[in-house]
Amino acid sequence: MILIVDMNSKENPFGFQEFVLPVLSIAEELEKCTVKHYLKVNQENLNSCDKIILSGSALKNTVTLNQTTQFKWLKNCGKPVLGICAGMQTIGQVFGGYIEQCCEIGMIEITTSKENILFSSTFKVYALHNYSLVPSTEFEVLAESANCLHAIKHKHKDVYGVLFHPEVRNKAVVKRFINAFQVDRRI
Amino acid sequence: MRFGVLFSGGKDSTLALHKAAEKEEVVCLISLVSENKESFMFHTPNIELTGLQAEALDLPLIRKVTEGKPEEELEDLEEAIARTVKDFKIDSIVTGAVDSVYQTTRVQQICNRLDLWCVNPLWKRNQKALLEEIIAKDFKAVISGVFAYPLDKSWLGKQIDENLIEKLVALSEMYGLNPSGEGGEIETTVLDAPLFKKKIEILDFEVEAQGNSGVFRIKQARLTEK
Q1: Tens digits of residue pLDDT in A21-70
Q2: Is A85 an active-site residue?
Q3: Does residue B117 belong to the interface with chain A, where contact is any CB pair within 8 Å?
Q4: For the domain bounded by A2-180, which CATH number is listed?
Q5: Which among B27, B46, B47, B44 has a CA at the least distance from the CA of B36?
Q6: What does the pLDDT average to over B43-67?
Q7: pTM of the model
C-alpha cells in the first residue's frame, strides 16, 4: 500500500486534480494506494503503508512550505519516501535544510551526479518551482540543473526527493521508486 | 478565488470553465485571436465565435488580437491577462491544458510574473475519459479542425458522440493520435453546454480542406433558446 500525501493548501481547490491525481494514476498501476491530505495523516496511515509519496503543489502555494512541523513523522516513519517538488522541499526542511529562491518553469535539463535507483545520465524534466533546497549534510545530491539541485537522498534512510515533476514527462522515476521497494507479502 | 478562464471556445477550455465554476467564481473569459493559423499557443478555428459563446454564457469576454508570432503572442497574452486583473480583480487563471507542456509552461510563467494562481483542472487527465465526460455533461461540440493523418474533411462538423469517440480511440491505437486532440490533431467548437444560457445555432458554414488538414468555419450563427 502506497500512502500518497496531498501537499496542496486549501487555497487552491484544484491542487488535488493537478498535482495528486497524475501521481496516483501512475502509482495505481503498480500497487494499491491511499491518499491523505497532509493535515490529516495519522499514525494508522503511516503504519499501514509500505511507502510514501509526497505530491507537489501549485507555484503560489507557500502555505505547506511553512508548515514543516506537520511533517515531523518523516524523521521516524521508517518507510521509503519520495517527495516531489514541494514534497522534496518539505523533506529537506524537516531534516534541517532550508529553501532558497530559484525559479524554473518548463522543460529543463538535469544531470545525474550520483548513481541511484531512480534515474541516470542527463535528461529533460518538467520543472515548476520558485524555490530550491539547500539540504543538510544528512543528504547526498543525486542530480542538478544549471541553476540548482534537483534530487536528493538521505544518506542512511530510503528518503528521496526530486524537485522536478516526474508525473509529467518522467513517469518511470515514480515507477522505479515503487518497484525498488516492493514488499513481498507471500507467507 | 476569482477566476479568469483562457477561453478558445473548444471542448477543453469549456470543460475547464465548468469545473472552475463548480467550486469558485468565474468572473470573465479571455480569448486571444491569433492571425497565425499555425500558432502552437492558441486554438484558431472559429475563435471569432467566442463572442457569441460568451454571450451564451452571460460572461464578459476580454478579447485581444495577436499576430501570432512565436513568443510575441505571449506578450499579447500577458497584456490581456494583466488588463483583466486590473479590470476584473481576478486572482487566478484557469486553462484547459491537458498535456501540452509548451502551452502550460508559458501560462505558468505569465501567472508567476503577475502573481496569479494558475489552475489546470484537466492536467494529465486520460484523454478518452475527457471525451466521455463532455458527453456525460451534455456538451454539444463539433470538430472544427483536423490536422493529422488519417483525419480528413469527412470528420469536419461532426458532433462528438460515443460513436465518434470510439473511432478516435481506434485511430489513437493505430496511428498514435491523441484521442482528444491534445497534440493539435483536432480542434473543436462548443455550441452548447450546461452553463450556456442559450445554445448556438449554425446558420452558415464552409469547409476548407486539403488532404489531412481542414477547418469547419462557422460563417454565421445565432443564439437560440434551450
Answers
A1: 999 999 999 999 999 999 999 999 999 999 999 999 999 998 888 889 99
A2: yes
A3: yes
A4: 3.40.50.880
A5: B44
A6: 92
A7: 0.94
- Please compute, for residue B197, the number of CA atoms within 13 A of its CA located in the half-sphere on the CB side: 7
Pairing of strands A149-154, A139-144: antiparallel
Q: Which 8-state DSSP code applies to residue B159?
A: B
Fold of B127-224: putative n-type atp pyrophosphatase, domain 2 (3.90.1490)
Fold of B2-119: Rossmann fold (3.40.50)
CB within 8 Å: B118 and A58: yes
* Cβ–Cβ below 8 Å for A14 and B124: no
Q: Does A105 touch chain B (CB under 8 A)?
A: yes
Q: From CA B107, how far away is CA B110, in angstroms rounded? A: 5
Is the Cβ pair A106, B109 closer than 8 Å? yes
Query: How far away is chain B from the Cα of A13, in angstroms, using its nearest Cα?
Result: 7
Global ipTM: 0.93
- Whether pLDDT at A150 is above 70: yes
- Write the residue in B24, B101, B121 that is nearest to A17 by C-beta: B121
Give tens-digit pLDDT for B69-101: 877 889 999 999 999 999 999 999 999 999 999
